[in-house]
Amino acid sequence: GNLTFKTKRDPGAIVTDDFADCTLDTSVWTYVNPKNDSPLTLLGGGAQISVPSGSGHDLWKAGLQAPRLMQFVTNQDFDVEVKFDSKVDKKTQTMGILALQDNENWLRFNFQNDGIGANSIVVVNSAKNNPVVAFSTPISIGAANYMRLNRAGDLWNLQYSTDGTNWTFATTVTRALTLN
Question: 170: exposed, middle or buried (C-beta count within 10 Å: 0-12, 13-18, 19+)?
Fold first, then answer.
């Protein structure tokens, strides 16, 4: 019989999305749910990933276990800005941006909770499956939190904001990475 399917677009520029539709554009986005236990909900004005407690879902030494929305892009310079409407208020909760070459080589830029009431902005660098914290600094976060990442060659510039207008420079990380 006849079958209908949708293919991924050719890799290219990063595509902007406010997730205003209640369906995921699968030609742009892939929902990765490694443990198959974290539902994705599109709310008509955002995407929500619910992660159950009691089981690790991190991007760390156990591998890339966190559920996430990913785009297939060419290796390029870029500027992206992301808004998170949730807080990280429990130990080791994180939300952020993952720049991926492959499962062993990546950069993670995230807001993170340390479990004792302090929040940080953290950069983790994984080379050959050996993730290490490349940068961490305590910050105050708000009801909404913004992250802006700029890549220029091997330079990755990170800023953050609690209102989307006033930005604080966090760090520059130098890392050769071929985006996928």
Answer: buried
Q: Please state the length of the chain.
A: 180
Distance CA 67, CA 35 (A): 8
Element (H, E) at 122: strand 119-126
How far out from the chain centre does Cα 152 lie?
18
Q: Running DSSP on this structure, what letter comes out for residue 61?
A: T
The two structure tokens encoding residue 102: 């492959």
The C-alpha R_g of the chain, in whole angstroms, comes to 16
List pLDDT tens digits, range 45-55: 899 999 998 88
Indicate the DSSP class of residue 91.
T
pLDDT digits (tens, 9 = 90+) for 78-133: 999 999 998 888 888 899 999 999 999 999 999 999 887 678 999 999 999 999 99
How far is 60 from 22, CA to CA, in rounded Å?
31
Task: Please name the amino acid found at residue 115.
Answer: G
Terminal CA-to-CA distance of the chain, rounded, Å?
35
CA atoms of 75 and 25, how far apart (whole Å):
21
CB environment 46-59: b (16+ within 10 A), e (fewer): eeebeeeeeeebbb
Q: Are 73 and 179 in contact (CB under 8 A)?
A: yes
